[in-house]
Each structure stands twice: as structure tokens, then as C-alpha cells.
Amino acid sequence: MQAWQVHQNGEPAEAMRLLEVDRPTPGDGQVLLKVRAANVNFPDALMCRGQYQVRPPLPFTPGVEICGETEDGRRVIANPALPHGGFAEYAVADAAALLPAPDALDDAEAAALHIGYQTGWFGLHRRARIEAGETLLVHAAAGGVGSAAVQLGRAAGARVIGVVGGADKAAVARELGCDVVIDRRAEDVIATVKEATGGRGADVIYDPVGGEAYTQSTKVVAFEGRIVVVGFASGAVPSPALNHALVKNYAILGLHWGLYNTKNPKLVLHCHEQLTELAARGAIKPLVSERVPLSGAADAVQRVADGVTTGRIAVVPTLENGAAA
Residue 59's Cα: distance from chain center in Å? Predict the structure, then answer.
């Protein structure tokens, strides 16, 4: 089979190589899956660089989120068991963690439903306890993680403010249904949020960016607001001033979704059931901006790493001749 492998850490476009390799052999409690679609995530790039908290042994195949097909023909969502990741024709995954792919979504959309939407659901509902009528601010609202939070926030009845970088991404955020869109390259984020909220600020802030975005969050968070920290795509990890949190009476909430798989896996299943229901009634639908063939995976991961994409890019091995669909 064909699979992308990383033999030496580096930038994805240089580190990833498409090779002919043997199909992986499932271990105890694992299953072999034919990859129908693999979603590109920012952690794929970090793993290529050797900068992620999970460091699979070299060589490894990136790709942490797929829609796959079991040997008996079931369509499932899975997180492949590294080092046999999803940017390949076949992957392996733990049988106990397989989730049914929603009928309402195609393969690429189903592949994109898992990590980003589970993170969004846990962040907004489990950690921040968002309520209908509250104001939600989402940083990087046009990206894969942010777009999921925007849709989930709207489904929860929140008013959503989306912060993006650039006019193209602003257009995407509007299409996603953001009530207010702020282009941080052209507008003052702090002043615009305060104006849009009558000076009150945002009740819940969803931050996958860190750095300057986090600093802005602390200045626009409402009384009894909650800042949900889900990642540091900017590359800068903030050092919160806890005296500021005390004086303004807001909460800083960390979210590592992967921990729920071991600490409370029943909640992951419950979340998937909620997401499946939302997808069935059209309240959420993963924004898949591109579908590329297997040969385009390295370029796709690099573009996600460079922050120039919107929504999700799905790698679909059945696409032919390098033509994106």
C-alpha cells in the first residue's frame, strides 16, 4: 500500500515521504481500516516537527483522524493508532474506540467531525457550561477548530463573534453564521468586541491560538466570563497574570480533549451521540474546504501548518491523478 512516512523530523513538506510499504498488522484489540478520508489537523504538523506532546517512534505515518471502513463494510470514525496514521491507504485503530460515521455526512465531513467538534463540544458545554443567550468569542473562527466552535456555539443558542486574519477568512466566518466578524488585520479587536457587546465583553472565549489572542481575550472577557484554552497555533504559550483573573472575576479553563479517552470514555461516546444528532438536523456540518488525493497530503499538512487554510482539508485516497475535488 501507499503511505506517507516521516523518517526525520522537520517541516511537513520536507519530512513527509510517500512510500510503498506493507499494510500494518493490527495488534491485540485493534482493527485494520481502509482509509476513506483522513482529516488534516495542526497536530499532524507538530508531530512532523517533533513538537507535539505525543512523539511516535520514527518512522511514522501522520494522520490522527479518519473516516474508515472495517473489513465487514462498516463506515466508522477513528483516531488511528500511531505509528500507523491516516495518511495512507490503510490504518489501524483500537476497536473499542471506533465511532459510527453519521449517515448525514460524507466521508470527508465525517472524518472532520471528531477531534475539532469533540474539542468544541467539551470546551463549550463541559468546561465553560455555555448558556443560550450568552456571547461567545472564537479566535481563528474560519479555521478547522474555530469553525467547529462557531457552529456549536450557534447550535447552543449563543451570539457568536468570530475573529479572523484576512478578508477571505472573514467571508468564511460570515458564511458560518458569525453574528459579528472581526478581521484582526484591519480592525482593533478589543475596541470592536467592546462596541459589539455594549462594553460588557464576551461570556465565553474559545482560544486555539494563544499569544496575542489570549492577551486580547483577557481584556474583553465579561464579568464571570470563561476563557477556554485549547491550543497555541500562534506558537506562543501565554503566562497568565492570575491577579488579573482575580480582579476581573473570570475563569481560565484548560482543555485537553484526549484525556477524556482514558479518564472518562463514556463522555466521548455521549458527545458523539450529541454531535450525530446535531448533524442529522443540519445544525452542524464540518466545513471541508478541500478534498485532495493521497499524493497531496504533505502539501496539505504544510499549508495547515502555515495557517493559510480555512475549514478542513481532507485527504481522500480514492481521488485520482492528483486532482482535488
Answer: 24
The pLDDT, as a whole number, for residue 233 is 85
Orientation of helix 144-155 relative to helix 167-176, angle to 10°? 30
- Contact present, 233 and 258 (Cβ < 8 Å): no
pTM of the model: 0.92
Q: What is the pLDDT of residue 320?
A: 65
pLDDT under 70: residue ranges of the chain: 320-325
Enumerate the β-bridge partners of residue 188. Answer: none
Exposed / middle / buried, residue 200 (Cβ in 10 Å: 0-12, 13-18, 19+): middle
Name the grid cell of 94: 483500537
pLDDT, one tens digit per residue, over 13-36 is 999 999 999 999 999 999 999 999
User: End-to-end distance of the chain based on CA atoms, in angstroms?
Assistant: 22
Q: Is 198 exposed, middle or buried (0-12, 13-18, 19+ CB in 10 A)?
A: exposed
Which runs of E-coded beta strand occur in 70-120?
75-78, 90-94, 99-100
Provide the residue type at 146 as one letter. G
Q: How far, in Å, CA of 221 to CA of 241, rounded?
A: 14
Sequence letter at residue 51 = Q
How high is the pLDDT of residue 319?
86
**Nearest CA-CA partner of 201 in 190, 212, 209, 211:** 190
Whether residue 286 contacts residue 312, with contact meaning beta carbons closer than 8 Å, is answered with yes
The reported pLDDT for the residue numbered 53 is 84
d(CA 159, CA 133): 6
Long-range CB pairs of 62-65 (<8 Å, 24+ gap) are: 62/4, 62/6, 62/12, 62/16, 62/86, 62/87, 62/301, 63/4, 63/35, 63/38, 63/87, 63/88, 63/91, 63/297, 63/315, 64/115, 65/38, 65/39, 65/41, 65/111, 65/112, 65/114, 65/115
> For 240-288, how does the pLDDT look when each residue is reduced to its tens digit (9 = 90+)?
999 999 999 999 999 999 899 999 999 999 999 999 999 999 999 999 9
Q: Which of left, alpha, beta for 255 (phi over 0: left; psi -120 to 50: alpha)?
A: beta
